[in-house]
């Protein structure tokens, strides 16, 4: 038995798993092999649908079900033009949990998930939105801090947890962003979290299909190497994405500067300039994850990347996290125990 068992009992019950550890949905990474490995190890794997068509998602869910009989979920982007069809695919497969990310879900999407019999998980970047999502029908929330890899919000998990966990008690709340050790998991559970979500450590796991170059970049990196994308001009917004600094990130800054120069010279209108900036990274994540181009590709990683010190099997990562949490809990109990010699004196 782990000291975490009573602390994450609510999260385990909600997910139907042995541990309340969710896998972050990472495009090109969170596919059948990694998702099934996380679920088979007692966690909760989540397929990253990303830009998949309904046909591709159907095949990915079927392939994942062939590799595990344990619960897993599917992460869908709310802005996907075929969102309702993707939800229908999940419902047909009996997927128990649908995660809607990338913005506030529409009433139609919420209704489709709920009427299909799945539990709805949503991302809440602020307390006011957390309350709104619960009113809309969310069965659980994920609060993800800016320490996370990939697309990020502006607020750290340390602040979000203090803002949201003491207030939101109606539904389970899972925390994400920068979590790489069991001591942190214990601390957030003690604050009221129902469970945690990890991405970066699993991205570099043995079961991850990411290219060896991608994993090697994680092993070499420190926390300070995982930086958010830079925006040069407020007129041309850049959605912040956290990844490892490389030649591509330097070239992106140069591309923005050149695009802004061309706009100011009248060579591009504003829409053309914005599209030029937005399209810079098209296909860059696949180049890094699948092809191994970690210099020009987008090597998305959270600040916990500095805690990736080996390529480990998923089951070993989860066991290590739990052992760290249990050791921290035991150490706290020892500190709280009064010294008998002092009492005797």
UniProtKB/TrEMBL annotation:
Q: Which domain of life is it from?
A: Bacteria
Tagged with keyword Transferase: no
* Keywords, ordered alphabetically: Dioxygenase, Flavoprotein, FMN, Oxidoreductase
Q: By its UniProt entry, which CDD domains does this protein fall under?
A: NPD_like
Check the record and name the InterPro entries matching this protein: Aldolase_TIM, NMO
Extract the PANTHER family matched here.
2-NITROPROPANE DIOXYGENASE (PTHR32332)
Q: What is this protein called?
A: Putative 2-nitropropane dioxygenase
């Amino acid at each position: 038995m782990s000291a975490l068992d009573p602390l994450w009992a609510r999260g385990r019950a909600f997910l139907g798993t042995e541990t309340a550890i969710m896998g972050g949905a990472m495009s090109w990474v969170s596919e059948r092999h990694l998702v099934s490995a996380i679920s088979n190890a007692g966690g909760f794997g989540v397929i990253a649908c990303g830009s998949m068509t309904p046909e591709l998602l159907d095949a990915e869910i079927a392939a994942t079900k062939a590799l595990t009989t344990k619960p897993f979920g599917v992460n869908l982007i709310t802005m996907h033009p075929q969102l309702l069809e993707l939800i229908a695919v999940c419902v047909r497969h009996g997927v128990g949990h649908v995660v809607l990310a990338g913005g506030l879900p529409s009433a139609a999407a919420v209704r489709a998930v709920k009427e299909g019999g799945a539990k709805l998980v949503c991302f809440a970047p602020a307390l006011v939105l957390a309350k709104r999502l619960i009113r809309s029908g969310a069965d659980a929330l994920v609060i993800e801090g800016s320490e996370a890899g990939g697309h990020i919000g502006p607020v750290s998990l340390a602040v979000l947890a203090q803002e949201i966990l003491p207030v939101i008690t109606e539904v389970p709340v899972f925390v994400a962003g920068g979590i790489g050790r069991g001591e942190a998991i214990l601390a957030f559970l003690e604050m009221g979290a129902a469970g945690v979500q990890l991405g970066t450590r699993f991205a570099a796991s043995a079961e991850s299909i990411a290219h060896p170059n991608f994993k090697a970049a994680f092993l070499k990196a420190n926390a300070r190497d995982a930086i958010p994308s830079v925006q040069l001009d407020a007129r041309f917004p850049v959605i912040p994405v956290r990844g490892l600094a490389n030649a591509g990130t330097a070239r992106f800054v140069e591309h923005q500067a050149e695009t802004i120069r061309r706009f100011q010279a009248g060579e591009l209108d504003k829409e053309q300039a914005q599209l030029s900036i937005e399209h810079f990274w098209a296909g860059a994540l696949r180049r890094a994850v699948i092809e191994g181009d970690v210099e020009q590709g987008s090597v998305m990683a959270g600040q916990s990347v500095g805690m990736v010190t080996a390529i480990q099997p998923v089951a070993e990562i989860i066991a290590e996290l739990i052992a760290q949490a249990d050791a921290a809990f035991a150490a706290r109990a020892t500190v709280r125990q009064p010294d008998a010699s002092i009492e005797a004196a």
